[in-house]
Amino acid sequence: MDPSALIRAYLPDEDAGGGLYQTLFGGGDPLLTSEIARVEIAAAVRAAGRAGRLRAWAAILSRIDADLAVDGPVYPIAFRAEPVIATARQLVLDHKLRALDAIHLAVALEDGRALADGEALAFVTRDDDQATAARAVGLAVM
Predict the structure, then answer these.
(1) Nearest-CA neighbor of 34 among 56, 6, 10, 13?
(2) d(CA 21, CA 25)
(3) pTM recorded for the entire structure
(4) Three-state DSSP class for 72?
(5) 100-130 pLDDT, tens per residue?
(6) Which of 44, 72, 107, 119 is the most buried (most CB within 10 A)?
(7) Would you list the DSSP string of 77-131?
(8) Taking the alpha carbons of 108, 109, 115, 119 in that order, is the dihedral positive or negative?
(9) What are the C-alpha distances in Å from 40 to residues 2, 16, 20, 94, 138?
(10) Please, are residues 134 and 121 in contact by the beta-carbon 8 Å criterion?
(11) Residue 4: strand, helix, or coil
(12) Is 28 exposed, middle or buried (0-12, 13-18, 19+ CB in 10 A)?
């Protein structure tokens, strides 16, 4: 899962009515993201706080951190640098992707598939270019 989609599920002005949060967390399917999502999420939540868009930024970040904890519903994947970086590099050459978007997609391809152990794997993103690239490499997209 791309961090931008995960963040959106927690922000009240992004997820009116809690629909995305319920879709992601209500189905009982495992949710995976790259371990670097923690940095991206912290940066985005803090920036929303600084901009005055999110008054309770610290509480929301604490909630996200709890969901990313060992016993939480979102599993942060400690990715293997060698195959992930090589795959991400190829993704940016083949598709219109930003560097971090390529890394998150590469983690899904290299490590997410292995963790899925043959089960269906869907990539969650809110970025159109990333969704297009994910489909092109054979992932279902939410």
Answers:
(1) 6
(2) 6
(3) 0.84
(4) coil
(5) 999 999 999 998 888 888 888 889 998 999 9
(6) 107
(7) E---HHHHHHHHHHHHHHS---HHHHHHHHHIIIIIHHHHTTS--EE--S-HHHH
(8) positive
(9) 10, 22, 19, 24, 25
(10) no
(11) helix
(12) exposed
Question: What residue numbers bound the domain in which 75 lies?
Answer: 3-141
Q: Do the Cβ atoms of 76 and 33 come closer than 8 Å? A: yes
Which tokens belong to 28?
Answer: 């009982």
* Count of domains for the chain: 1
How far is the C-alpha of 8 from the C-alpha of 12, rounded, in Å? 8
- Six token digits for residue 141: 């997209």
